Amino acid sequence: MERLRFSTLDSAGVILCLFGILVRFTVTAEQEGENLSGLSTNPDKDIFVVRENGTTCLMVEFAVRFTVPFDVLALNGIDLITENAYLSLPRGADIEGKCGSQDSHIHISWNDNAYTLRIYFVKETSGKGDDVWKINKVQFVYDTSEKTHFLNTYNPGKHTASSHHLSALETPAGRSYVCEAKQTLTLISSDHQKGVTVAISDVQIQPFDINSDFIFSEAYKCITDQREQLEETLPLILGFILGLIIVITLSVYHFHLKLTAATQSQLPCDRSMYKNM
How far is CA 254 from CA 247, 249, 258, 259, 260, in A? Predict the structure, then answer.
């Protein structure tokens, strides 16, 4: 009996273990990332999608460039010189992400995980009482021993550059953020507190409340684009107003001439006729 009970408990443990593995596998399979960058007509632009249960829950479209400072030895073999590596987010990157009701994130890795860009989103209530979402953290992991962009690096290795107290791209809930203008963000690196610059352009992002698969919700334009659009349309508006003023002025002047001519035609031409008036 003792042997039978042990065998039964052991079998139950195996079943529970297998059930746990199955549950973990199911949860993992529910959320998946897709790289759709090949659909973009802009070769510098990437498109990444996170899907949950076969439905899009996070979408990111942007072009990203990094400026990463690193140290090299001077010719005297003693002093250190800081140089910059310039790299772009490639189309063939791997992605993974997580969608939640209040927080989401996307991790983009490439070159055998030598580089990883992590973006974290949060949804909250603003001071005005409206629901908004924003980026609250950005990290960039890079390996200075990678030879494509880093040459003759002093003390090469992996470093993490992170944002501090970030609150970026604040957007009304249920809408996507759109900005064509370039925006820059400086991250502080674990490599002697160097500043890594992340330049983002041609952006459309939505990490929450996507109603249609692979389709962004109503766009919320960034202030820079709104200002540029105003600068483009303002001369047209002013030109239209000026043209309207000229037309009104000419019309009033023409009406005045007609009225003056009509008044003069009613006056007697012979001065002797004034005696009878």
Answer: 10, 9, 6, 9, 10
* Residue 115: C-alpha distances to residues 65, 124, 221 (Å): 12, 30, 30
CB distance 193 to 160 below 8 Å: no
User: Whole-angstrom Cα distance, residue 135 to residue 51?
Assistant: 19
Residue in 107, 110, 113 with CA at minimum distance from that of residue 95:
107
pLDDT of res. 3 = 43
User: Which of 235, 101, 82 lies closest to 150 in space, CA to CA?
Assistant: 82
42 DSSP assignment: S
pLDDT in tens, 117-152: 999 999 999 888 899 999 999 999 999 999 999 999
Q: What is the pLDDT of residues 7-50, one digit of tens each?
A: 444 544 544 444 454 444 444 446 899 999 999 888 999 999 99
Q: How far is Cα 69 from Cα 161, in angstroms, rounded to an integer?
A: 11
Separation between Cα atoms, residue 126 and residue 219, nearest integer Å: 19
How many other C-beta atoms are found inside a 10 Å radius of the C-beta of residue 148? 9
Q: What is the DSSP letter of 191?
A: T
Average pLDDT over residues 99-119: 96
Can you give the pLDDT at residue 257? 73
Return the closest-CA partner of residue 121 out of 96, 94, 100.
100
Cα–Cα distance, 127 to 137 (Å, whole number): 20
pTM: 0.72
